Amino acid sequence: MLSCITLLATSVARAQSAPQPGSERRPSTETSSPETTAAAGPWVPDLVGNGTVDESAAIQRAVDRGAGALRFHKGTYRLTKTIEIDLDRVGVCSIVGDGVATFWMDGPGPAFRFVGTHRGTAAPATVQPAVWRNERTPLVDGIEIVGRHPESCGIEASGTMQLTLSRLTVRETQHAVHLVDRNRNVVLSQCHLYHNRGVGVFLDQLNLHQINIDNCHISYNGGGGVVAKNSEIRNLQIGTCDIEGNMGGPDSEPTANIWLDSSNASIGEVAIVGCTIQHTHDAPQSANIRINGRSTPRPFTDELRHGNVTIASNVLSDVQVNVELTDVRGAAITGNTLWKGYTANLLLRGCSQVVMTGNVLDRNPRYHYGDGAQAKLGVALTDCHDCLLSGNLFHGAVLQDAAISIRRSKRILLTGCSILDYGAVGIRLEDVSDSRISDCLIRHDKDDRSIALQQRDVRGTVIQPDLLNVEQDDEK
Fold it and tell me: Closest Cα to residue 62, out of 39, 40, 94?
């Protein structure tokens, strides 16, 4: 009996000493010392998180005293100034919100700006000891940034080594992620960059080698999805992302879901793999993938075209042009499905060493809702040389010159393709030399007036008419 009474008394005492539901104080609102905070969390002290109080100064203080890991409780943290993270001065730093912290950016500029001092490459010998000690792998994870000022942005970084952005949501800003100056070995993973006025991932006047963008939703950003301008970019990997509708309205400036422009710089060594990339054809000159490879001169060659691009296993639809390559040297376009290109499915201009194989370009009537039947489709090569088109399936009426149009080009091999129910013309050749067209199945069983192959000013080119199965029309 005595032991039972003792146990009962102990249980009551424990119950009375335990915190009651709703009575806990949030560590993020405590004014404890840095040492106490670090031991307890490390939660950022002196914050309210109600979306009303300006938290900029308190967060900046936590950064400046070198707190390192800055963790935020559930709440809405209002900022009116950019949180400046000078990595060389404050040391390694992370911003972590566990998916429950939202930052309202009520001022101009980025919510968080990371500044490092790395001026080397990705080679280990070029990374200074101070960079490894103070600056490596700045991290943002599990937060949301919402722009509430017309000039607000999400994250900006320069001079960083191994910047890592994960499980980040940015919306309603100008640019969601803005990389400038020089960075190396960047990772964006599992991020939602949604409905921003500018660009989702903006590589802007940047020298950047090694960047991985994977498993992200990059959608409805008015200035483009992933955009590189005036930048030297190498080793850009975009994989298994959903990239949609990154254009403005009918009166907006032309852009693309992925737009890589080598003008005034150079871009090469790019892989775009396993993504769904689509929408919207209503925007002017919209494209899913647009790459301009014409780059700045190099002293040891006259070649101005950069490239080495892989576009593989993507789902591409509902824009003016699905894939548009200009002055690109070295590209593999493999295993993609392309449809609803309202101007064309694929445009190559001034390109060489391009392989297009194993792609499906089908007009599926199930997509003829709205104005879907008006998509023109088609593939056009202009001023190209040394290209291979093999093993592709083209199906459905093309509402322009031909399903495949080749102009002012040479040393083109077109072989082993099925071109079916294509409309007026299957293949059109104009001013083509030193090429070969063979082993293609070209049939239009629904229209006896269709022309399998149409040619004008074709020289030194082998064409196997016995494999065409329908009449040729030779224009002189």
Answer: 94
Average per-residue pLDDT for the chain: 90
Please tell me the distance from the alpha carbon of residue 427 to that of residue 461, in angstroms, as a whole number: 14
d(CA 341, CA 286): 10
Q: What is the 3-state secondary structure (H, E, C) of 196-247?
A: CCCEEEEEEEEEEEEEEEECCEEECCCCEEEEEECCEEEEEEEECCEEECCC
Closest-CA residue to 214 (of 236, 183, 199): 236
What residue segments make up the domains of the chain, in order of their start? Answer: 43-474
Rounded to 5 degrees, what are φ and ψ at 310? -115, 125
Query: Which phi and psi angles does 241 have, rounded to 5°?
Result: -110, 160
Longest CA–CA span in the chain (Å) reads 114
Q: In Å, how far are 123, 124, 237, 281 from 184, measured between CA atoms?
A: 10, 11, 13, 35
The pairing of beta strand 462-463 with beta strand 404-415: unpaired
What are the tens digits of pLDDT across the range 201-224?
999 999 999 999 999 999 999 999
Cβ(447)–Cβ(470) below 8 Å = no
| Cβ within 8 Å of residue 11, ≥6 positions away | none
The whole-number pLDDT of residue 389 equals 98
Class of domain 43-474: mainly beta
